[in-house]
Amino acid sequence: MKLSSIADAKGVFDLLRDDLAAVEREFARQSSSEVRVITEIAEYLLAGGGKRIRPLLLLLSAKALHFRGESRIRLGAVVEMLHTATLVHDDIIDAADTRRGRPSSNTAWGNSKCVLAGDWLYMQSFQVAMEERNFHVLDLLISLTQQMVEGELLQIQKLGRLINEEEYFDLIFRKTASLFRVSMQLGAAIADAPKEIEGQLGEYGRNLGLAFQIVDDVLDLTSEESTLGKPVASDLREGKATLAVIHALERGTGEEREAIRTVLADRSFNRVPHKTILAILKHHGSLDYAMDAARAYAEVARQCLTDLPDSEAKRALLWVPGFVTSRDR
Amino acid sequence: MKLSSIADAKGVFDLLRDDLAAVEREFARQSSSEVRVITEIAEYLLAGGGKRIRPLLLLLSAKALHFRGESRIRLGAVVEMLHTATLVHDDIIDAADTRRGRPSSNTAWGNSKCVLAGDWLYMQSFQVAMEERNFHVLDLLISLTQQMVEGELLQIQKLGRLINEEEYFDLIFRKTASLFRVSMQLGAAIADAPKEIEGQLGEYGRNLGLAFQIVDDVLDLTSEESTLGKPVASDLREGKATLAVIHALERGTGEEREAIRTVLADRSFNRVPHKTILAILKHHGSLDYAMDAARAYAEVARQCLTDLPDSEAKRALLWVPGFVTSRDR
Predict the structure, then answer these.
(1) Is the alpha carbon torsion for B317, B322, B325, B326 positive or negative?
(2) Which of B36, B104, B119, B262 qualifies as a cystine partner to B99, CB 3.0-4.6 A?
(3) Concatenated DSSP letters for B100-129?
(4) How confident is the model at residue A189 (pLDDT cuts 50, 70, 90)?
């Protein structure tokens, strides 16, 4: 069997331009409430941009299965809205000041309104998903949301502590890969695809999501604030050990481990500067280790598509993992 | 048609003893998670008691329609869990220290965990409700939850401000009466009752819920902390004007209005003592006015049952409004 050739950014964008624009309109329509402050917060979050990678996956999944119904637009907006709801609550929990280079919603509106705005966005996602009249779609979305919430709670319990790789992968599955997986599964579900195909596309999403989050975590350690739109090494400042850090902890000297432990416990670089941590990570090849892991998951994602017949959408799905692992923000 | 005689507390309790015990067990089963802190918070909330009036209404509604299936237990636990989820988020928003005479969950676990525990309880309610495989049940629950969340947001916007009766009734409908209504409707929905009956039972619930909340708001003004399990006049301390206060504002002298306005704006009794406010309310008969309104809604609730055939459950439903309006906590 001939290996499908891989698309490029322009090709993928051209392929989805109209659909992504429709998702934006649908998101705006869905997030308008008679309670003004909800619409305000939702519009603010919508205008803040974001990669829209979850709707993109759902659209490509549906398209690869030749599904053209309106459900793909509606559910594309639903997965982005669900993602937005988690961000609103996560920012409260992390007491984040900025998100995507702007004040976070909790900074702008206060915690109380944002607890409720997050609740509203969750409920509205389900409300819109209800329009599908499809129990499988609802099962996927509700189980997913619960998994994400549990992940965030597990993360809180592990803050400031040294975790191992297994715990890390469980956390990033819940935090990111589970929604990537469900976005792909939803595309298959509305196309009425066989369970096996839905499973393969879901696995693609899961592996891609793991790759995506590993890269995100590396960028958090290495990028500039101006590129990230939030302070550098936010994860360490919040007491979160990510893959490269876990790698260095397992290989470092006693002194190096102590330096990392100090930053995690202090949740600041007051006693150990950021550049010391970076030097430790570089010395042990920990950043490369993490990037290699991300690329390996990206490759597994591609392999999950083997049974899918060739199409423009398939070529786009083959392109996404490389895009995700080579991005700089 | 002979008017049904009305039950008494013992009769109602005997009628529902087994079902209410089953709802407790179901609630405990539903709220156990592999994430330990969720189970801890849920058990704490469960042990805190509460009147269980929402499951009671659902059980009576189903029973009055001769429905005996397991759905009544499952959904009885769902409406209590949904109610609990709103309490967890409300306590964060109100920065409440105590609830039902114990530290509130946000005091005990902190806001971050409670944002997520509330989210989890919402999702779990829906997850369990999904087992019914009944879109109408899900529509009722999801619309309801959104209405409650919007109500809480509207309330925040009105804090410290003078509101009118119309705004007050909209708020207490969203906050309390909407869930009372849906509890009754769910009992009818699982019994597969005609839309008309479901509507009448829903109206019973709505009117009862309005009566319930009006009484709650009066008790907040007049009761002792030891009876309420939370500080006296919490509503005024949080900047919330309730029915008796709105009545006095419309009838009071300039000086009296100013006193009330000061407490609402200060959110404290530092400049105007609690007893001054109570004296104003008593002078204008405002507490009686509110209690009369509650009794009128209770009477409308009873009248909503006219078409329902006589049964033990109906007699219990006729008893509930009197119980709600004569309680002291």
Answers:
(1) negative
(2) B104
(3) TTEE-HHHHH-HHHHHHHHHHHHHHHHHHH
(4) very high
C-alpha to C-alpha distance for A90 and B295, rounded to whole angstroms: 44
DSSP H helices in A159-242: 165-172, 178-190, 195-222, 225-228, 234-237
Amino acid at B299: E
| Closest partner CB to A150 (pick from B120, B130, B142) | B120
CB contact under 8 A, A123 and B142: yes
Task: Give the CA diameter of chain B.
Answer: 59
B212 versus B51: the higher-pLDDT residue is B212
Specify the CATH architecture of the domain A9-326. Answer: Orthogonal Bundle (1.10)
Tell me the H-state helices in A223-253.
Answer: 225-228, 234-237, 243-251
Please give, rounded to a whole number of angstroms, the shortest distance from the CA of A76 to a CA of chain B. Answer: 20
| Residue that is written with structure tokens 């119980």 in the block | B323
Residue B11 scores a pLDDT above 70 = yes
Between CA A291 and CA B241 the distance in angstroms is 57
ipTM over 0.85: yes
| Inter-residue contact A316 to A11 (CB < 8 Å) | yes
Optimal mutation site among B142, B154, B182, B267, interface A, most CBs of chain A within 10 A? B142
- In sequence order, the 6+-apart residues with CB closer than 8 A to the CB of A18 are none
State whether B127 and A117 contact (CB < 8 Å).
no
B32 CB neighbour count, 10 Å cutoff: 12
Cβ within 8 Å, pair A150-B38: yes
**The CATH fold of domain B9-324:** Farnesyl Diphosphate Synthase (1.10.600)
For the stretch B206-265, pLDDT in tens is: 999 999 999 999 999 998 877 777 778 889 999 999 999 999 999 999 999 999 999 999
Token pair recorded at residue B15? 């009628």
CB A15 within 8 A of CB A313: yes
Least Cα separation, residue A49 to chain B (angstroms): 25
The residue extents of the domains of chain A are 9-326
- Amino acid identity of residue A240, one-letter, is K
Contact indicator for B208, B176 with CB cutoff of 8 Å: no
**What is the pLDDT, as a whole number, of residue B63?**
98
Q: CA of A124: which chain B residue's CA is closest?
A: B146
Assign A1 a pLDDT band (cuts: 50, 70, 90): very low
Please classify residue A254 by burial: count the beta carbons closer than 10 Å to its beta carbon, then call 0-12 exposed, 13-18 middle and 19+ buried. Answer: exposed
The secondary element (H helix, E strand) that includes residue A102 is: strand A102-103
CA distance A162 to chain B (A): 19
Q: Determine the residue type at B298.
A: A
Residue A154 contacts B, CB cutoff 8 Å: yes
Confidence bin at A107 (pLDDT 50/70/90): confident
Binning chain A into helix, strand and coil, the percentages to the nearest 5 are 75, 0, 25
Q: Is the pLDDT of residue B144 over 50?
A: yes
Pairing of strands A98-99, A102-103: antiparallel
